């Protein structure tokens, strides 16, 4: 009997069925429970964020919250007046850039769009091309980032036939840095921007190593950019860094800094409440006790959701997606570590059929996973049905069915000792990263979803989803493949390429980095131009890739979250910014 939408929850239904049918377990279930069945263990590190700690986190005082809300209103009015003030092009662009990097642009979406539309329509492109390199690059980056069409030819006057910047431009460090950031918005086939990336990277690196420049602030900005370009950074973490930079960088717009600080702290207070809500759900499941082989990563999963959609209005998505993230990790560990192949075949069938009666043939640990999944998905779908009158159940279920089928493919490869080609691996691996679930949820669980939107998504995953998921997979593999091989997991992209191309690990890693740059260009092309998708969803696709890069930049920040990831949690979720 397929599970229907609504109450009672599927866990309640299952518990009733257990009482009725407990005397009639199938033979296969008995065999699966045999103590002779070997189990692997990954020895994952325990969580560093226990539920008692989460619930001890203090929220801001109620009176302070009221005062901060009033202060934000006042500062928003001041900022809005700045946006519409008649100013030179450079000042307008720098203001919008500051609002976006300070993380407060979501308050002024209409105003910013009005200003950029006027600039895009009215500005003489040939006049822009004859401006200084800094202004042209800033113009290009802001307009392209915000969905306006700007050709790369805008930079052609700055390069000679050999692909080098014309004389003396390399001494313009502000211009070089601005062009460097713009170059990472390149789409597939844009050769001028590729030349710009190589050229600016070379000269900015030389600048850092030179003793002729003593501007410590500029050197810090250059070092930060060379570590990671703006377009690849997790928005919220960059905002936290930029707020500190902006405090002393622009005293003429002090109100923007004050707005950013107060707004950051208000949103952080909201995050604390959401995290406690998610923690109650996770604690009630008690998976971390009953399934001790899994990674218990509630807080890290919530951090991923903040990286995907940080704005207050996306609270429902963050809660729903934190639950989904926890279930993705749990089920991933079932397939990768604990389940036998026979069990996994039955488990996949139960998910693919979305049939609660099939769970009765599963061992208890798999029953728990199935039923928590069914209950969570149906609850999310029911919420959307109540709020929007839309049936998103088929899309949400499809994502999980596809994920589990892809997990099973990897399990079969492992048990059969098969090493896929890199192409085979990625054709399956872009799904096993789990981001198809995150992006399906992002598409369905938001205030802007419509029946027309659902039709666009119902026939399959659009390219923008595949590009985003592939990037997340490649970032994950660069950081985790060695540890996963040690515990006996299937080979990842690096090992697949090494095996079939007969190359060293260093060469294979270089190939994966080239693929990452390629897929960023594809993602830019899909996300930064005109398309049928809402801006929120395009940003979610970009942000999934950014948060993957962030989590895995310094190693496995998810499996081993007690270093950089711990610091990120502290900065974004725990410690408010002091306003003095």
Automatic annotation (TrEMBL):
Transmembrane spans: none
Gene3D superfamilies: Farnesyl Diphosphate Synthase, Terpene synthase, N-terminal domain
Superkingdom classification of source: Eukaryota
Keywords: Magnesium, Metal-binding
A GO term, aspect molecular function: magnesium ion binding
Residue ranges of every copy of the Terpene synthase N-terminal domain listed in the record: 48-226
Required cofactor(s): Mg(2+); Mn(2+)
Ranges of residues in domain Terpene synthase metal-binding: 284-521
One GO process term, biological-process aspect: diterpenoid biosynthetic process
Name the record gives this protein: Terpene synthase
